[in-house]
Amino acid sequence: MHSEASLIATIAMSLLFAFGGGWIASMLRLSPIVGYLLAGIAVGPFTPGYVANSNLAQELAEIGVILLMFGVGLHFSVKDLWSVRWIALPGAVAQIGVATAIGAVLAHFWGWSLPAGLVFGLALSVASTVVLLRALEERGWVQTLNGRIAIGWLIVEDLAMVVALVLLPALAQAAQGGDGSFETFLPALGVTLAKVGVFIALVLVVGRKLVPWVLEQVARMGSREMFTLAVLALALGIAYASATLFGVSFALGAFFAGLVMSESDLSHQATADSLPLKDAFAVLFFVSVGMLFDPAILLSDPWSVLAVLLVIIVGKSLAAFAIVLLFRYPVGTALVVSASLAQIGEFSFILAGLGVSEGLLPVQAQSTILAGALLSIALNPLVFMALGPMERWMTAHPRLRRFLEFAARDTSVETLKDRETLSGHAIIVGYGRVGATVAHGFDTEKVPYVVIEQNRQTVQSLRKKGVPVICGDAALPGMLDSVGLASARLLVVAIPDGFQVRQVVDVARAGNPHLHMVARTHSESEREYLERQGVGMAVMGERELALSMLGHALRKAGIADDAAHLVVAGLRTLPNERGGRE
Predict the structure, then answer these.
(1) Is the domain of 262 the same as that of 320?
(2) d(CA 166, CA 185)
(3) Residue 453 region, left (φ>0) first, then alpha (ψ -120 to 50), else beta?
């Protein structure tokens, strides 16, 4: 078959099998990712029937990784990344160290050398940002604090793997007694860090001005085709240049391309234009992972696969859970980060392949790592599904939760010395864009209020400004009591997580049955539930945005102000019966 026909056949059959697998998985109420992985096994070289070109599939998958990471960058601003640096940087480094040590110990029991154990543990320590992004997008958590921490954590892991990939050849030479030695690490490390530093500096300093300017010039041409081409050219071009000139991975280069493009006012259009291609190639990524998997290893060496899977899902996740708690973040954040890390992906494949080619890893290690990757990716949606029940179980056992969150609890009361005398005040839960706007209005009208916020950096910033604030999870028993819940007049729940909003509302209603509450929500069903629970006003952001736009549009269309106001007020009281997406 000609190479052109092979390419077409690989794309066509991969998407066809992926569609079938995803459909079946969805019918069984499983994540479509499971279906995509099974489709990859079906078209892979280890199962009978049609066999796709695995080399072409891997290159197509690389495009999928590039576009997915580009999408992450578009949604993840520099400010967001910087805001979680205090937990993402040390947390990721500590977790990599712990996971690498666990993997090295396991390899030692199998009789492998120390260098082999270190490479093996390192491959198990790094999670797939692609898998994490898909999980967060499905749940609408990308813009939440927990989502930003998880993404920032994995970005740090990706940077660490870039350094590791450069140092592996030097480790191989030293381990094999060649002309290299461990002293070559420092020069190699210095060169690598210098390259990465120059790349990041160029992208963030030059790219933040140049890329938005280019998009603006193309947009003025009025051609949507040229604009889409410009977006893809910049994404793929920066990814390729970063790998060629600076030794940075394609995925990381694409992430920073999206990061600088997010500074443009046209970033939403760029997102919309790249979305169809991103989704299609993301499917090919998961299919390509499945193609690498040989199911025979489950029969020939099941205990090794089980051990690797336990390290990934249990050992690594428990380490991350403990690290997040030690950094004084609540259990909810620790659970999300732990679930995010309960899988391995693309960097693990690259590390395993390089380790085998350099003679550091035995051949069977690559198959074991691949098996652990596929199974952990398939099981990761189930891990995320377990977060809700685990949260509820911990809430039902307050002593255990208080013990786990002892370090995260805010024992500093310097800004709330008069909390015993608080009366008739408002409580704001969450100080993001919504909470900050509400607080600004309260300041203007001299309404007394207290803030409960989970982000410690935000808390420290507010304390410097003299804002009364405590750090913690408002859903925890006693947290609302500590800011005068019984004597409060109003509760404003401005956090985006629907499950956490419900918890806060339930705790507040139990502690003060007469309290008036205003809550933020993102769906009609959630709004109806909150109002049944006694929330005075459940605000659905997208709907309020539509009503504000409608009011303005009616006035500009010549409708009198009073009439326009009545139309908007009437629609505000009606349920969303149009079936539109919220």
Answers:
(1) yes
(2) 10
(3) beta
pTM of the complete model: 0.67
Which H helix or E strand runs over 352? helix 346-357
176-208 pLDDT, tens per residue? Answer: 655 444 455 566 667 777 877 888 888 878 888
CATH number of the domain residue 161 falls in:
1.20.1530.20
Report the pLDDT value the prediction gives residue 579, as an integer from 0 to 100: 41
Check: CB of residue 164 under 8 Å from CB of residue 189: no
Tens digit of each residue's pLDDT (9 = 90 or more) over 112-150: 988 889 899 999 999 987 788 778 877 777 777 788 888
Give the range of the structural domain holding residue 471, as residue numbers without chain letter: 419-535
Q: Which stretch of DSSP H or E encloses residue 493?
A: strand 490-493
How many residues are recorded in the chain?
Answer: 582
Q: How confident is the model at residue 339 (pLDDT cuts 50, 70, 90)?
A: very high
- Tally of CB atoms within 10 A around 213: 11
HSE-CB of 196 using CA atoms within 13 angstroms: 20
Q: How far, in Å, CA of 285 to CA of 133, rounded?
A: 13
Same domain, 272 and 327: yes
Q: How many domains does the chain have?
A: 2
Which of 395, 427, 443 marks a domain boundary? Answer: 395
Q: What is the CATH number of the domain that holds 493?
A: 3.40.50.720
In a domain, 202, yes or no: yes
What radius of gyration, in Å, describes the C-alpha atoms of the chain? 26
Q: What is the rounded average pLDDT for all residues in the chain?
A: 80
Contacts for 208 with CB less than 8 Å, ≥ 6 apart: 78, 260, 263
> Is residue 381 packed enough to be buried (19+ CB in 10 Å), middle (13-18) or exposed (0-12)?
buried
